[in-house]
Specification:
With 284 residues, the chain is of the alpha/beta class. 36% of the residues lie in helices and 20% in strands. α5 links the parallel β6 and β7. The termini are far apart.
Length: 284
């Protein structure tokens, strides 16, 4: 498979553009993560007036080597808005237009980014309910964020995990991340995925120690798991393990013919997501 195709499949082009192509940064962001400003976009339902109206909002979290503007995030934001649900999608540190370097990204820093966005959304006066959605590594972040928030009030109203990439732990333990190999006990300062995208030593070491499912299990609200049966990047057992973790308050739906990047049956994935959140937020 060609390098260009691999980059397209993983969403890497959007990250590589961060700095390398002098991507223009947005105006100063009111959301601050551990690495600095977090770039974001809010999508509101058509005709919605934030001064007088109220609606729920879903926080959308992209995967590794991706961004808020890469598939499937824009399509999800559009579909939710048509259903009367607002969304906020953002770039994790070291990705897209947010501050930070990819090489210094860790799961703990992404969790801090997600919490910063959560805190920002909570103070928006027009928001009357909050859901979480994560794709790939963003699914890991969404699940762990919900688990950490489970002891606070309010808790997320519902969570959608699309091909949640919990396999990152096993990948780091096994010393192979995409096409890069390393000694998991003593990784180098960084590895290069496809020769250009750097993951740092701290990510490679700390990801091995994550208690992904244990943290996620604390959340007791409704969860929808969506996973394509043609996903060649994140294996189905990741979603199956999440289903076992959550028990009866989670539903696993297999999307036949869908790949990891949600490019074959995107409308179906959006429709299932919208249906779930309409039920969660009790939108008739």
């Amino acid at each position: 498979m060609s390098l260009i195709l691999l980059l397209a499949l993983s969403g890497c082009l959007s990250v590589f553009a961060n700095g390398a192509c002098n991507q223009k940064r947005p105006a100063k962001s009111p959301i601050q993560g551990p690495e600095g400003e977090i770039a974001f976009k809010i999508t509101l339902p058509e005709g919605f007036n934030p001064e007088t109206d109220r609606c729920p909002m879903v926080i959308l979290m992209h995967g590794i080597f991706s961004s808020k503007d890469y598939n499937p995030m824009p399509a999800l934001a559009k579909g939710l808005a048509k259903a009367g649900i607002a969304s906020i999608r953002f770039d994790f540190n070291g990705h897209g237009q947010s501050a930070g370097r990819l090489q210094e990204m860790t799961i703990e820093k992404e969790l801090a980014d997600a919490k910063a966005v959560w805190d920002y959304v909570r103070q928006l006066k027009y928001v009357d309910g909050i859901g979480l959605l994560g794709h790939s590594q963003g699914g890991v972040i969404a699940s762990m964020t919900a688990g950490r928030l489970a002891t606070e009030l309010p808790v997320p109203d519902g969570v959608v995990l699309i091909a949640p990439g919990s396999v990152i732990k096993e990948a780091c333990q096994g010393g192979r991340f995409f096409n890069a190999t390393f000694d998991p006990a003593d990784p180098p300062e960084f590895i290069r995925c496809w020769g250009m995208l750097k993951l740092g030593r701290e990510y490679l070491l700390t990801t091995q120690q994550l208690d992904i499912y244990g943290t996620a299990a604390t959340y007791q609200g409704p969860v929808l798991l969506l996973h394509g049966d043609r996903d060649s990047i994140v294996p189905m057992w990741c979603s199956e393990r999440f289903k076992e973790t959550y028990g009866d308050h989670a539903t696993l739906q297999v999307v036949k013919g869908e790949n990891h990047m949600i490019s074959r049956h995107r409308k179906e994935v959006v429709a299932r997501t919208v249906k779930f959140f309409r039920n969660v937020f009790r939108i008739g």
